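Team,

Forwarding the record for the chain on the shared tracking sheet. I've put the sequence and predicted structure together so nobody has to dig through attachments.
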Amino acid sequence: MAEKFDAIVIGAGPSGNTAAYLMAKAGMKVLQLERGEYPGSKNVQGAIMYADALEAVIPNCRKHAPFERAVLEQRMWLMDDRSHVGSHFRGAVDEDEQPTRYTVIRANMDRWLSGKVQDAGALLICETTVLELIKSGNRVIGVRTDRARGDIYAPVVVLADGVNSLVATKSGLRPAVRAQEVALAVKEMHFLPKHTIEERFNLSGNDGVVIEMLGKITRGMVGTGFLYTNKESISVGIGCMVDDIKAARVTPFQLLEEMKNHPSVKPLLAGAEVKEYSAHLIPEGGYNAIPVVHGEGWVICGDSGGFVNAVHREGSNLAMTTGRLAAETIIGLRDQDKDYSAANLKRYRKALESSFVMKDLKKYRDVPKILHANRQFLTTYPELLSRSAHTMLKVDGIDKRSKEKQIKRDFVSTRSRFGLFGDAIKLMRAMR
């Protein structure tokens, strides 16, 4: 007879680990299945971990979690071919506060969180592929794996198997992701001595810096570059929408090489040893790309549900929060002796709508469409702003009023008054 569990979780990333941990901690018999050799073996992320989302799952996590550096400083660069303009925030943490963001190495973080899951009593089986969901009518009642006697049963299944969500797609629970809804990101790990990183970025202790980059480095494609400081390494990468990459006939590796050789970036990586290269798909379709998130005997969370805030580059906090809300919904139904019908699991969708997850995604729901249709935000404006900064800051005997007139003429001749006004309205609507 096939073994039965109270719940099955597919995937061992942040959302799957969170859901499995909370359900196991609540006394449920939980099976977690992971395709990779170990939790985190397939995951690629810059990576930033948001402590408040983790703290909601594991209190006092800051004392034990394998964080690299607390993010003390945030830089945002808008780049042309040779220069950048940007914003810069650096803030010390008050005595009664704790940092809210940390750089992490995902493989280390996922293994640590997986250890918590197993300590709570969940059974983790790696190197196992879920081939399909087992149904009775339209009700999901288990999974079929690639192992011998691989049919396993449970009254509820949590789908947390990543951006492609092959299990959900194959089972007809959600449509296949489209090229215009996902980004392909590539990342390298550049290793440097701890003291070199601290000197180069003006850091001390475990403080860290995050640099996020927009503009010409993506060749007009919708995407971003990033550079995060770890204890003894620098994570550097770039990601662009898959449909843009296909149309441009450029490889992500080429984009990354160009970014690394940009005059603003190259000195920061000088002397580093590259030891890791990886690539990963990221769901960036936003609110309008989120599928149905629950049904008869199943829920979906994390990247599988498209829960990524691309505007603010937030993903792991949305993953953990959706995993937590899914688990809390399932535990609540168990405690009330109610089944996992679509009608009862509707609580999960309501919890999502009440959380910051759906509120933020809804706020920025038009951004992907606007950026796809208005590439000037990624090409023309970075150039205009860089030229303006160069003009104003250059000391050449020309009076400042004349320089201001020159900058105004440059903007108007490039975009026209009507174009400038229209672009401003588009941005306001996208961020409302």
